[in-house]
């Protein structure tokens, strides 16, 4: 059986999850990967057969998105051509982790697919949302990468098609310790902004993972490390707590390890504010931004109780098995005519 696994490469979480899932998916057939996006900082150990710039999110230095860089990177014609040339029709199963080009290719060629991953969980209205609902954000979550059927992943099973997070095997096998440092990864802030606040907490050690350094650099109570899957995982396993964005994979792993967790959602990214709402329900501290009071916020957080530990209801094997069986069960008539799209329709919609 031939399987196409489309992976969104905006940020590192999708790549990390794909590397964990690949050996399980390969038990069912040969796998080709379509990597879409160009701003992940991890080297993907994946059988990448197709690559695309995709529709990437780019972050500024002060907690938000870089809309100008995103706009410069956007091309309707390129997206159309890449979708038209992606040979989804040559595969028995198409798994799509929130990639719009694969979704469009399946619509063009009337090929069924399974939307797989965290964003798929937002197909359910029972999945937690931000206090301030964002219409544009809702439209993106529900229409950016549609599929024929869905397997969602989230912190809890809010609906019958939503499963536990996929946790890396290194984390599953770990014996977590507290060696006193705080692990920090805030890709939407510059190192300088983060360090200016954390250096005020002289008695606390921080391990800050940076896009800029190639080897460890010590700056007072902060050590900067280059971004790597293994390095970050080891730091988190041995930390007293984790400070990061309100994404999915890293918060899920920190909660599984029983670590204290402080999250700063990316400004303008609605999905992260929805994640923040779910995390708050688990007792996680959420703060909106790094400001003059951030050092005080960190100190107070360190003295607060740890959040509720994440207990997995399904393991990775069970999640992949369900997803493959779901893909096999899709009948041709389930690919509704309403889901098909022509080039004229696509250009008009844009």
Task: Give a topology summary.
Layout: E1 2-8, H1 13-25, E2 30-36, E3 48-52, H2 67-72, H3 76-85, E4 93-97, H4 100-109, E5 114-117, H5 135-143, E6 149-153, E7 162-163, H6 169-172, E8 181-185, H7 191-198, E9 205-210, E10 217-219, E11 222-226, H8 229-237, E12 241-244, H9 249-256, E13 260-263, H10 270-281, E14 285-286, H11 294-302, H12 316-329, H13 343-349
Helix pairs in contact: 3-4
Question: Average pLDDT, to the nearest integer?
Answer: 89
- Distance N terminus to C terminus? 36 Å
What is the second-level CATH architecture of the largest domain? 3-Layer(aba) Sandwich
Structural class assignment: alpha/beta
Structure, described:
With 350 residues, the chain is of the alpha/beta class. The chain folds into two domains: 2-167 and 314-349, Glycogen Phosphorylase B (Rossmann fold, 3-Layer(aba) Sandwich); 169-302, Rossmann fold, CATH 3.40.50.2000. The protein contains 13 helices and 14 strands. The protein has helices at residues 13-25, 67-72, 76-85, 100-109, 135-143, 169-172, 191-198, 229-237, 249-256, 270-281, 294-302, 316-329, 343-349, and strands at 2-8, 30-36, 48-52, 93-97, 114-117, 149-153, 162-163, 181-185, 205-210, 217-219, 222-226, 241-244, 260-263, 285-286. The protein has a seven-stranded parallel beta sheet, with helices on both faces. It has a seven-stranded mixed beta sheet with strand order 10-11-9-8-12-13-14, sandwiched between helices. Strand 12, helix 9 (249-256) and strand 13 form a beta-alpha-beta unit. Helix 3 crosses helix 4. The radius of gyration is 20 Å and the shape is globular. The protein starts with a strand and ends with a helix.
């Amino acid at each position: 059986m031939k399987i196409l696994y489309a992976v969104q490469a905006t940020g590192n979480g999708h790549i990390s999850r794909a590397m964990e899932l690949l050996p399980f998916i390969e038990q069912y057939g040969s796998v080709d990967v379509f990597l879409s996006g160009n701003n992940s900082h991890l080297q993907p150990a994946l059988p990448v057969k197709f690559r695309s710039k995709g529709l990437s999110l780019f972050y500024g230095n002060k907690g938000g998105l870089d809309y100008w860089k995103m706009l410069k990177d956007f091309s309707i014609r390129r997206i159309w051509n890449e979708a038209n040339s992606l040979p989804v029709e040559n595969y028995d199963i198409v798994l799509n982790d929130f990639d719009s080009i694969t979704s469009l290719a399946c619509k063009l060629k009337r090929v069924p697919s399974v939307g797989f991953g965290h964003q798929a969980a937002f197909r359910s209205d029972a999945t937690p949302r931000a206090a301030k609902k964002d219409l544009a954000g809702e439209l993106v979550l529900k229409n950016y990468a549609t599929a024929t059927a869905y397997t969602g992943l989230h912190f809890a099973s809010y609906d019958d098609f939503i499963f536990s997070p996929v946790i890396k095997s290194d984390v599953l096998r770990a014996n977590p310790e507290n060696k006193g440092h705080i692990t920090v990864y805030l890709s939407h802030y510059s190192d300088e902004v983060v360090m200016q606040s954390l250096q005020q907490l002289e008695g606390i050690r921080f391990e800050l993972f940076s896009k800029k350094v190639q080897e460890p650099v010590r700056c007072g109570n902060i050590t900067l490390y280059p971004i790597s899957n293994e390095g970050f995982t080891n730091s988190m396993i041995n930390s007293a707590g984790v400070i990061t964005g309100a994404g999915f994979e890293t918060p899920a792993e920190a909660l599984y390890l029983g670590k204290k967790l402080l999250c700063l959602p990316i400004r303008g990214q609605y999905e992260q504010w929805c994640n923040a709402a779910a995390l708050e329900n688990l007792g996680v501290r959420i703060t909106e931004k790094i400001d003059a009071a951030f050092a005080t916020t960190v100190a107070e957080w360190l003295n607060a109780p740890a959040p509720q530990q994440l207990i997995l209801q399904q393991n990775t094997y069970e999640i992949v098995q369900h997803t493959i069986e779901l893909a096999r069960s899709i009948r041709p008539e389930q690919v509704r005519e309403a889901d098909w799209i022509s080039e004229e329709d696509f250009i008009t919609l844009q």
